[in-house]
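Recall that a protein's primary structure is simply its ordered list of amino acids. Everything else, from secondary elements to tertiary packing, is in principle encoded there. The following example makes that idea concrete.
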Amino acid sequence: MTTFIHPQAICESDAVGNGTRVWAFAHVMRGAVVGVDCNIGDGAFIESGAVLGDRVTLKNQVMVWDGVTIGDDAFIGPGVIFTNDRNPRSPRMERVKARYADPGRWRLATHVARGASLGAGAVILPGVKIGEFAMVGAGAVVTRDVKPFQLAAGNPAASRGWACFCGMRLNEKLTCEACQAAFGFDGDRLYPAEQ
């Protein structure tokens, strides 16, 4: 496998994994880390300090900023926007220059865990954690953590049930009608029944 960078993409990073494809008009800045076998869609932007795991799909027009980490096998739908500053101001404004001189004073880390999917146009506020195999609905505004396997949708995003490994919604018995996977619930977290 070799890395493919479209002639009309900008890829300044030296840390782009083998087999990854970066399509037209995408921009991967120096200092960004992109794993192996990823697909970076047209017009996506990955800022210095962002980290993508292996086999991540970023659809067109996704914006991934410094402080965002996306785990292996995650799917980030078209137009998803991450944020990293809860109280943004222009760093060029004299009153806030000192705060912006140290990223530790404004940047909040955001984590998307392995296998999670974020629907088209979702907005992910800074400092949240999206759990393994979680599913975030299209257009959701995620203001707080999403648990593993949780289905979250709306503005602000709230729990709408649970999702299977395969991405389908679980029924009231916590089984998947598509792939027959079964889950248990301990009052706080969902877990695969085979554990």
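The first strand starts at residue 4 and ends at 5. The first helix runs from residue 97 to 100.
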